[in-house]
Each structure stands twice: as structure tokens, then as C-alpha cells.
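LAB NOTEBOOK - FOLDING QUEUE
OPERATOR: T.R.
BATCH SIZE: 2
PURPOSE: Compare the predicted C-alpha cell outputs for two unrelated chains run back to back under identical settings.
PRIORITY: normal
REVIEWER: second-year student, initials M.K.

ITEM 1
FIELD SEQUENCE / FIELD STRUCTURE:
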Amino acid sequence: MSPAKKTYTFTLFVRGADVLSDESMDALFEAGCDDATFGARDGAQYGEFDREATSFSNALASAIHNMASALPSLEIVRVEPDDLVSMATIAERSGRSRESIRLLAAEQRGPGGFPPPVAYVDQKTRLWHWPDVAHWLTEHDKATLDVDPEAADLVAALNAAYDLREHTRRLPTAALALIDEALSTCRIARP
């Protein structure tokens, strides 16, 4: 018996070909992107998918493949839902109230050990890595909605790879040696 399919919602931000042209829309539809809405927001083009698959990674991989086969000059630059989240977004994704998340983060409730913020936008606004929070919520059974830590890790890793590709393009050759050195110390853990 094959695994049950589920609908996964995500957005791919892209650049290159104009996804809104009639020719591109036809090509994307023919390539299997009939489950996506294409648009542009603040100059950034995107495809918003509701893709049926047996896993989030299968849904994402097939959407990326479909877009690349339809428009080879298209380049994926980001995947959403994003991996950096505010307290309000954590509350929304987990089905908890913002106050409940604040209390968990402040360790005034729950088992403690809530992941620390990774960035401070200003005095009041903190950001967390969603994969860290998703794993913690799952481990401590604190989400009332379905939280998929594996999907959160995948989105974060893909966005890191896309960011690396983007930023290394602008670095001088001498600086790339530092990147190579850092990557050589990264061992991808395999189960």
C-alpha cells in the first residue's frame, strides 16, 4: 500500500524568465504547474503551490523540477514558508496564542529549553529559526496544529543553499577559499 497523499502549500520565489507572460504561463501549465498561482510582489516573482504528494519533500522537488523543465532560465531564489519567524508567526504555525509562545520562550511555562532567538530586528522584535522551534514544539508536544520539523529543516537548508549561491557570486576569488574551507568541515549527516 502506497503512502497517502496530502496537499502541501508553499511558495517558490524565482527570477529569470517572466512567469506572468502568456508563453511562460502556458509552459508552466503544460509542465504540471496547474496547481500553482503565479504572480509578482514588490518586484519578486513567485509561484504559490498547493501540491499533492506523499511528503513535503516530494511536493517541493516535483514543483522545482516542473518549473525548471518549463522555463530553463528560471532560477529559484527562495522557498516559503520562510525559516526565520517572529513570535506571532510561531503562534500561527503552531496553533497556540502569542502569549502562550511568549511564556514558553521566557521559560515561564513548559519544560524549558525553548530555542533562543537568532536575530533581533529591534528592541522588541526577535526572530527564531523555525526548524529549531518546530523540533522543540514537536519534542515537547506543544503544538496544537500539525508541525513538520523535517519540512522546516528542508526549507532552511534549501534557502541556505540559495543564499550561498547568491552571495558567493559577488565574492572575490580569494574570499571563496574561506567558503570552501567552511564547507569542507561540514559533514552532511546521513541516517
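ITEM 2
FIELD SEQUENCE / FIELD STRUCTURE:
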Amino acid sequence: MEFLDGRRPAHDLTYDDVFMVPRHSAVASRYDVDLATADGTGATLPLVVANMTAIAGKRMAETVARRGGLTVIPQDIPVEVVADVVGFVKSRHLVFDTPIVLAPDQTVAEALSLIPKRAHRAAVVVRDDAPVGVVSAEDCREVDRFAQVGAVMRPPAVVVAADEDPRAAFDALEQTRAAVAVAVDGEGHLVGVLTRAGALRATLYRPAVDAGGGLRLAAAVGVNGDVAGKAAALLDAGVDALVVDTAHGHQDRMLDALRAVRALDPQVPVVAGNVVSAEGTRALVEAGADVVKVGVGPGAMCTTRMMTGVGRPQLSAVLECAGAAAGLGAHVWADGGVRHPRDVALALAAGAASVMVGSWFAGTHESPGDLLEDSDGRSYKVSFGMASARAVASRTSTESAYDRARKGLYEEGISSSRMYLDPARPGVEDLIDQICSGVRSACTYAGARSLAELHERALLGVQSAAGFTEGRPLATSW
């Protein structure tokens, strides 16, 4: 990557401060761009769901891995629960989505409480593991809440074999105008469901899968307590990457934790962070990190910079840390600060192998929280920072009341924030489509067929706040 005048600016830059200049390109189509990462995680998209309790759960992990990304299960989750999540995610189908399953005698109230948890907004009614009907929120409208779903369900309009070509499933859905196709195995047992958009995505994305064909996911471990013991348990559970995580990564406890993890001889990538300097990056790589997480304070739920004055504008942090990591044969993840697809493209241009996304994905059907409505009927989910009072209370639940109260006095981050679902993009896959469209187009503008070529060919300029505003679309005319 280079700047227009050939010199790096004297002051640090955020993503909003820069723009990318088009270059001569021989890339004819955005579909000719390969977005696979080179960080050893096996991801085919450069997207990582941040290890935040309000965002990264098994549902998110399944969906994102099916499209090629990676989800990091938070360090606060008990190891036995993580093991269950790993088993669940790795057993999911690579094409068909996991459905909500109901028995015919379950109530409409139960259906309405579960259907909003899926972007396809439907449930499959089964008897003896075989699908006998499909029920949607629309089917339950103005129906007695104690009525049984068997009375309101409709027979599946499209039933396909588990090995059906996604294009054929799309054509069948298009012809019948059905919302979902129901997939069954050779014995007629339910396998999953597929929407028209899901069928299209199955032809556009490559799932992130391990050697056994299971979907990939990662898990985090902190730097306190029995780090080696928990890391060993996570590795035994089958995680595909191990993230050693703390807010201030350039410290002795992190270096000790990294050495303890590396002593286990893990056969998966070890990620560590967070840092924002070349010095911090080199320290983590030399202690055993394959990938370094970069970012202090840019996250939407983070108040670190306002509370402490500590942090660094994210683009400059990524640029410096990526250069230091590359010199040691390692990689970086850009963690935080992305609010638009352009930000992801710029982070990758600066040298990040992948970009971590947190709050942006909180307001989706796949995040773990319950779907709520405000007084205007707008759907939202509640998100919170991992250093907030809410997260600290959960993390210290086994400690004494005195120790919990003392730690509760010093918290950072937002404990409750409404993350509204975009009616046009309510699912995480909708956001992945938007991000990948922007990144692929950015690559074509730069003349790059891969992320490595994007980093090599990106030409950036520095702009004023007015320059950034000029690039924003107008919701209404002037």
C-alpha cells in the first residue's frame, strides 16, 4: 500500500480520513476476486466475528462459517459449553440452514417465540423426524396463542433431497414462490431448510471447513487463571483457532500466557491481542502468536479512549502492526472501528489478514440475544461491551461479593445499547453480502485479484471531513 504523495502522513489516521484511488485494472468482474485469507485459519472470507457475549454464539458461528468467515466464542463461556457449541457447529450442513423444529402439538405461542430467531422466519413441523408442515409468523397472525401449530401449518411447498443442487432448489422456490425449501435425507428425515437467497449464496461463497468437512470456529481464553488448562480443554474440544485475549496485550501476563499456550504445541493458529504498535506486535509474535489482534478503543461499545486517553486511530495502527508482523512471518486481524464496507476494504488494504466485526453484527437474527421491539415497533437486540459492568458481573460471578463489588467500581464500556435490525438486512448473511460486495469492488478498482494484491496495489489519499461527507449518499434530495 502507498499514499498518493509517496509519503505516510505525520499524524495517525482513521478509516474516515482516507480514500482509495482507482488504478488500472485487468480484473473484469468482482466474482474473479479471491477473498480467502492467508492467516492459516482456513477462512475463505476475511471476516471474524468478535468474541463478545452479545454477538458470538453457536447460531452466529454456524451461519458465518457456512459463508466462509470465522466466529470466536468468548472467553467467559464455560469450557463444557464451548465443547457443546463446537460439536453443534461442526455437525451443521454446509448448504442447508438449521431449522426451528416444532411438534404438531406445540402451541402458536411457542412458535411465535422461536420464529424470530431465524432470518428465514419459519419453523418446520415434524413428526418422527419427518417434515409434515411449515409455519411462519404470518400463519400465526390473529390465531389463538394456545392453538396447536398442527392446525395452522401448511404442507411444505418445496421438498428437496439433501444432495440437491442449490440452483435447482432456487428454481423450485422461484416457481412456487415458497419462502423456504425443506431438505430431507434418503429416509425422509429433516436435514435443513433453504431460502432463495440461501441457494444463491451457496453458489457464491465457500464454507470454512476443517479437514473432516466440519464448519470452523475459534474460541478465546483470557490471561488470568489456569490459561494452559483451559487452552488445552479448548483444543481437545476441537476449536480451529485459539485466541488469547486481553484489552492490553503488550504486558507480562499476556506474554506468559502465550508461552504457556505455545508450550502445548497447538496444531491450530494462535491469535493474541490487543496491541496498536510495531513493538507490541513483535513482542506477541516472538512469544508465540501466529496472528496479532490490532485495536485499542475503536469499537462501538468501547469507552477506553474517553476514559483513559489510551488507544490509536485504527488505520495507522493496522498499517504499522501489519508491517511488523509480515517481517516476522505473522499476520494481523484488524479489531474494531468498522462501520461501513469501505472500512473493511481499507483495513485489508492496510495489511490486515482479516477484519473483526462486533457491534455491526449485534443487530441481526443470528446474535444470541432475544429480539425485542421498541414503542414504535422497531426490532432490536441489546449489546454490551466486554469491559462493561454487565460483562464484568458475569465474568466474576463465582467470586466473593466484596471482590465483585470492588471490581464493579472500575468498569469501561457500554452495558446496554440497542442495536436495531435493518429491515432490509436483518440477518448476518445480508451484512456479509453487503461487505463482500464492497470489498470485491474495491479490489477491482485497485486491479487486485486477491487480498495480497489489494495490499500491494492499494493507493490511498488523505481527505478532510468534508471529503468524507461528500462520499456519503443522501437519503433525501437537497
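REVIEWER COMMENT (ITEM 2): The chain has 16 helices and 20 strands.
FOLLOW-UP: none requested
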